[in-house]
Amino acid sequence: MSKEFNVAIAGATGAVGIEMIKTLENRNFPVKNLRLLASKRSAGKTMTFKGTEITIEELTEDSFKDIDIALFSAGSDISKKFRKAVVDAGAVMIDNSSAFRMEDDVPLIVPEVNPEDVKLHNGVIANPNCSTIIMLVAVAPLHKAKKLKRLVAATYQATSGAGAKGMAELEMQTRQLLNEEAISPEAFAHRIGFNLIPHIDSFYDNGYTKEELKMLFETRKMLHDDNLQVSCTCVRVPIMRAHSEALNLEFENEVTPEEARKILAGAPGVIVVDDPAKLEYPMPIDATNQDDILVGRIRQDISRNDKCGLDIFVSGDQVLKGAALNAVQIAELL
Ligand code: A2P
After folding, report:
1. So where are the chain's domains?
2. Which of 334, 252, 321 is nearest to 19 (CA)?
3. CATH no. of 5-127+324-333
4. Do strands 92-95 and 124-126 pair parallel, antiparallel, or not at all (unpaired)?
5. Does an H or E element contain 166, and which?
6. Closest C-alpha to ligand 1, atom 15
7. Which residues contact 60 (CB under 8 A, 6 or more apart)?
8. Class of the 132-318 domain?
9. Is residue 41 lining ligand 1, measured as CB closer than 6 Å?
10. Model pTM?
11. What is the C-alpha separation between 243 and 174, in angstroms, rounded?
């Protein structure tokens, strides 16, 4: 009989937690027992996994006895607080937060990009930033073939990145604005309905946001290249749950759009959607509820005098590949 695992989800009631439960079920992950953990507020409620009702328990230090794999998506503070309890219980923590991503003995994994790093773990594996995952699924195959030197990104990030409350706020504000009612932003610094906000996470003294620098440092870590030049502008847009990104890529070697399409067509986790004549290009509504990252608008960068630059556009489901699916794929690697 093949091995089965006891799995815990910390943050099971959140936007990503709910998707983790569905993903374990959809991918038929070999779950022996599933333990659903959240705050005291949710304890005693039930959620369904494979047709069975499971009672949500309060997350405590004692939650990890007999657990093999603990998927965490309840924020950095909770991950930091319970890391020791998970590791002491002999479980492997797959953490969706940014708490440990840059630690040397914590592998940062996108299974399509650097699966070999998973074996370096000491009990904790980090799930990268959602925008970084979506970007690298598309960029890594091109990097492997043509050696990336520099990347400039502008993101169009969905409200799901701020959790269930972010999505709820977009829905509520849209209704309120159409009804000419007063709004009061809570999940975001400003109104998100019919607006966009060029500010995700906190600002550093150099003018970049933490989200933008996560994309820089996490990309360097996963592509194993500390000299890679990366500059990003991260923008929150009034979209429910799929992120999009405009990427300008500079390679050491020449690459034509035709070649890039061929490389990407054979890459895992990618669907090339690139037929402008038929009005086909990546869009967040098409990426929603899709496991794969959509890549299109592939063209030669005309600002250059050589063929070493490409512009591309990508869309990917933030809750799935940006978080829950990638975490479950890491568990599959284990
Ligand atoms: P709860 O629903 O009980 O508050 P999201 O990112 O979508 O906002 O979800 C956050 C997740 O983290 C939810 O499952 C939430 O549970 C959980 N969570 C928040 N605070 C705590 C806490 N103090 N202990 C355990 N889980 C928490």
Report:
1. 5-127+324-333, 132-318
2. 321
3. 3.40.50.720
4. parallel
5. helix 164-178
6. 11
7. none
8. alpha beta
9. yes
10. 0.96
11. 19
